[in-house]
Amino acid sequence: MKKPVYLDYAATTPVDPAVADEMFRYLTPDGFFGNPASRSHGFGWQAEAAVESARNQVASLIHADPREIVWTSGATESDNLAIKGAVAGHDNPHIITSTVEHKAVVDTCAWLEEQGVEVTWLEPGRDGIVQPQQVFAALKPETTLVSLMLVNNELGCITDIITIGAELRSRGVLFHVDAAQAAGKMAVDVTTMPVDFMSLSGHKVYGPKGVGALYVRRSPDVRVQAQIHGGGHERGMRSGTLPTHQIVGMGKAFALAQSCLEDEADDLERLRTLFLEGLHDLPGVTLNGSEASRVPGIVNLSFEGVDGESLMLGLRNLAVSSGSACASATVEPSYVLRGIGLSDELAHRALRFSFGRYTTAEEIEFASGHIVDVVTRLRAVR
Ligand SMILES: *Cc1c(COP(=O)(O)O)cnc(C)c1O
Fold it and tell me: Which of 3.30.750.24, 3.40.50.2300, 3.90.1150.10, 3.40.640.10 is the CATH number of 5-13+261-380?
């Protein structure tokens, strides 16, 4: 059988071949395999130089100082480090977040809530976007941290973190932003976005899985309490031998993203238009999330009269995602779609299509035609 068309770039991206080549040079006996923390010989120095060069590349994409980048194992760990590490040591912390954050934020805040931390869960409107006024209205004198994502991974919509961050900074409230779906997809600039912590992931931007970073602002200086101890790497914020090959891969991937950001966004916008045009004549299709404020590569659609799971099974030649979770025998609809006010029934009818660097116009035309066929067939047998 022909390989299915991959339309799940929001779940993960393939590694760019140039990134894989670069990574390979840091693994083998004839390569730069040293421990970047080894101070006593050239193997260590070369590995350390590679790590610092990658730190520059990652910092550069978000206009940060390289000293503000802490390596982690991925955005999940970055979210944990920022949130747990920022509230640690506060007597009576209060966190504001939302119900449509990534599980790495939702579950971390829920765990802290069980430990006695007060958490306010904001609910966005149908467009999926938490409004600045909602955040400001939830602020209390003891509010320690606000955690919101820049781009939602299921809907693609963009939060106004500039407006939110400016107010939070004036009130002395820390601001964590999960930018795993934003970096490389839109302009991200910490010199104009007043955030204190920003989570980044390698594998959403054509880098490898298992590596990420947390941006921790230096001026004005903020601190996080380490959540992993042992050796004091990364200025004491995250211990553990640095995975040179992973880090070099993420650095290369971020450098590539920076060099092709605008062209790639334009290409994805064209593919999105082509995709939606291909579905234009199919009745009963609605777009979930904001149409106005969004990245181009994620399209979340509900199909009237068909169940998303059946549709996904029917779309045998497409690799897509429904955002639903299998909880034992039952399929739970996406908590993000429930979070924007969709009924269980409507949430069950949704699928997420996400495009990326290797998606072609032919694939998009094939995908929309395939969807029209399968939806029409499923509706007919109802
Ligand atoms: C993928 C993703 C994560 C998790 O990143 P990992 O590197 O896989 O741990 C966190 N937040 C968002 C918004 C994501 O899309």
Answer: 3.90.1150.10
